[in-house]
Amino acid sequence: MSVFKLSATLNAHSADVRAVVAPFNDTIISASRDKTVKVWTKDGFWNPRDNFVSNGYVNSIAYDEKTTSVLSGGQDKLINVTDLYTSDVDPKFVLIGHESNVCALDCDGKEVISGSWDTTAKVWENNLLKYTLEGHSASVWDVKILGNGRYLTCSADKTVKLWSKDKEIRTFVGHLDVVRSLALLPDGVGFISTSNDGTIRVCDFDGKLVQELVGHESFVYDVIVLPNGDIVSAGEDRTIRVWREGKAIQVITLPCVSVWSIASLPNGDIVSGSSDGMVRVFTRDPERTATIDEIKEFNEAVESMALNAQSFDESKTQPPETLQRPGKKEGQVIVVKSPTGINEAHQWSEGKWNKIGEVVSGGTSDQKQEFDGKTWDFVFDVDVQEGAPPLKLPYNASENPYVAAQRFLEKNELPMSFTDQVVDFIAKNTQGVTINQASDTVNPYADVRRAKLVPHTDYLGFTSNNSDAILKGVKKFNETEKSFTDDELKLIENAFQTQDTEYLFKVATTILTNWTNALPGFDIIRLIISTVPAPPEVLGDVFDKGLTPNSPPILFMTFRIISNIFLNTTWGVPIITDTGITTRILNQVALTDGTGKHAVNVANALATVVLNYSAYACKYKSSKIADLVANTLKTKGLEVAQASSEAAYRLSVAWGNLVYVDGGLRAEFEQFKKGIKYNEQRFKDVFEDIAAL
């Protein structure tokens, strides 16, 4: 049996390649988050040409052979129609109608169908809207035209739906998570669907499950059928898998994080688009195989990938001689301790073991990982909620794990009471990894040359983007408040996605003015206050309604808003540090919820505001603000610190700032210090720094 081998690597885009199509053997079209659509033509080598530059991410693409049109959709909510053979500044046509990101496209020469995050699919003919398919309750991730007025869609609501014109005629269930992609079986006998549950389901149109293909280790993003009938899938586990008769016959591992999209050339070659900005072509034809050097470079890139130890059971690490025995199935992965002591992951494919990376937690691999635009020694996956995608925890071996833990919890708006658990997690998953140390037993908490913790002059905030949860809350409470129509709720959802702060402030004002439970309105303001160009009129209402002890959730959300105002570099600091406003705010620093369920959130929000004011006093040598903060810390500091170690730590740093401004406050700080009972290294560090001031 011939296997796929690398044919070409196209250095395609400067960001993720989210979609690829391959209409001819010598033509590939790719779409990317770098906002471009590129056409690749092969004349000995693959040569690129910009086809279209969008105003936002391009996430979907299709080709209409009848009109030689390239259709692309994405973040701008539009479907732009360009010609394959030209580079268009402006599209030939623009199909307007979706209210959010266009993430799926298909066409058959007569009709076009599109899917969107706005929960609808739309059918177009002659560049005009023909049908809107409404029935899914979440984003429509893929769409297919079946012919004769029938269409197939899949959604984040875990379902696949069959439509006749604009009428839903059948719903297929079976996947346990978001359904990501669809492919049609030859001769119209059924369809294939993939899901975030890691499975691929082959069904007929009566809903009968014909096959379930299991092998991917994470989300399965795309699926196609080759001309010979083989099924090919790709996903978050950075693999392309080839299936025949229900079994994986080949697994191709790529040197990237995600394989987003795949397509088949008419000759049966596979095209992939991935998170590293590359388009790759794989072939079974020896005449089209890449050179020996190109294949070697590709294999070395795969081998050099650093793999998260959490993906493997390192207690089952095998000795090197295991690689002399055959694997149990295509795609099987084992961890082998190499003669040099490094744990290596090997995958059984093409009848042999292939190294696919080094397991980072057990060795000294210096492979760096990219996340949020920065380079890290580790980027861990942390499962915090069953059924939800893992959160990313970046960490550098040279930093204080408490800093990494706090950064992770703040970004994801998780309780700071989890700090010690996250620190323990980091310690367990970085055992043996040290920076510039001869010994492999150095305590990972020990910062031999750690940075001084005080004075601290950076402002902290609560900027996690939980817009989905806010929107869910708005919809829930609106059922009784009835302030927004269904159309207005869609506009609100769109405003979150497009970051329309002006519209969101109007929504927040309506909620604050009219709703009994105004918490969603406060949370909207918390989300956007740090970026708006001018102080919003609703800010007065926020202070009037939020600075009361009657509702702990409203109080801690108000203090989160105040923290985020410090982050607004245009107008925030001058307004929030006005003496009258500062006095009013600090007078409300009190642990209103005692030991109740909101105590930690209240304490952390209060402490952050106090810390920010102390940072201002320290940065600008403001004795007036320093006096107000000192009075707050002396009268309320220990009360707030009792509720949360994170609050206690931030208040300790605030005391350090004040002692830096006025050494005469050292005695009051020592009284506070005596009341701190948390036995954590970070407290020892900050107290040591304050003593040295």
From TrEMBL:
Residues 309-330 are annotated as: Disordered. One of its GO terms (cellular component) is cytoplasm. SMART domains: WD40. Residues 309-321 have a biased composition (Polar residues). Keywords: Cytoplasm, Repeat, WD repeat. Residues 345-440 form the PFU domain. One of its GO terms (molecular function) is ubiquitin binding. One of its GO terms (biological process) is proteasome-mediated ubiquitin-dependent protein catabolic process. The keyword Repeat applies. Residues 452-693 form the PUL domain. WD repeats lie at residues 10-40, 133-164, 172-202, 213-243. SUPFAM superfamilies: WD40 repeat-like (SSF50978). It is found in: Cytoplasm. It holds the Pfam family PUL. PANTHER family: PHOSPHOLIPASE A-2-ACTIVATING PROTEIN (PTHR19849). This is CYFA0S20e02212g1_1. It comes from Cyberlindnera fabianii (Yeast).
